[in-house]
Every structure is written in structure tokens, then in C-alpha cells.
Give the backbone structure.
Amino acid sequence: MSLQMVGHLNDRREPAGRQLAVSDRIGEVADVIHRLLLDAQDTAVIQETAEALLERKDTLGMRLVLLAYSRAVTNDDVDHLGAALHCDPEWMTTEGADRLIKQPRELVTDQDAGVREAPVNVARNSSTRTGTSPAQWLRRAALLAR
């Protein structure tokens, strides 16, 4: 495969992640989305896919990002997934803050342990990676009591 073809394929993963994230049939493409969220070749793919999932404003989008966060193995993966979670401007609105409290609460009983534990792990890593204190993220996510 030529370098030009490889570059072309890389260019297509970002828009693919965004398109799949807004799909009505997201359950059917969840495995592909998960691979895009942990893309080893391009962190822009991770960032774009995570942001698009959070823009859905639903618990499924949050769940997929948290699942990927719980499976992330590189600092780049953790940084970009964490940035998408921390830097979503929606969290600054009343509606967004309510969602940030509600969605992790709904996922506390998720069948995947990684999803259940990810909000706490995001909070722990937040102070060193984003400058946000863990207490701030936890408070916003209403997880201090858990």
C-alpha cells in the first residue's frame, strides 16, 4: 500500500467516527466506534469521535466514551478521551450540568465494570492531565458520595 493511500485512509477515519457517532443504528456499529476511540495511529480520530458521541447528549454516547477510557492503554488515548469529557462546553450550561450528573448515575449499574468505574478514574486523572481538580469533576458528576 502506498503512503498516499495510507494518508487517504487516515483522512477518512475522522469523518467516519463523527458519522458513526450520530448514527441512529449506533448499536450495530459500536465495535467500530470503539476501535476509532482507541485509534493507535491518529489521536485526532479519537478526539473527533469522542466529541461527536458526547454531542449526542445521551447516555449511550457517554457510555461509549467511558468504555473506551476504561480500556485506554496509552497516555495519548487517556489524554484525548479525558479532554473530550472535561472540555465539553455543554457541561457549563444548566442542561449540560444536569446531564453530567444524570448520565454517570445511570451508568453506575452498567454491566461493564470499566464503565462503572470510569467516572471515578476520569476524576482521579483530571488534576494531573487537565488541571481540573478531581473534586470539581466528581462534584459535577455527583459522585462524591459513591
In short: The first helix runs from residue 3 to 21.
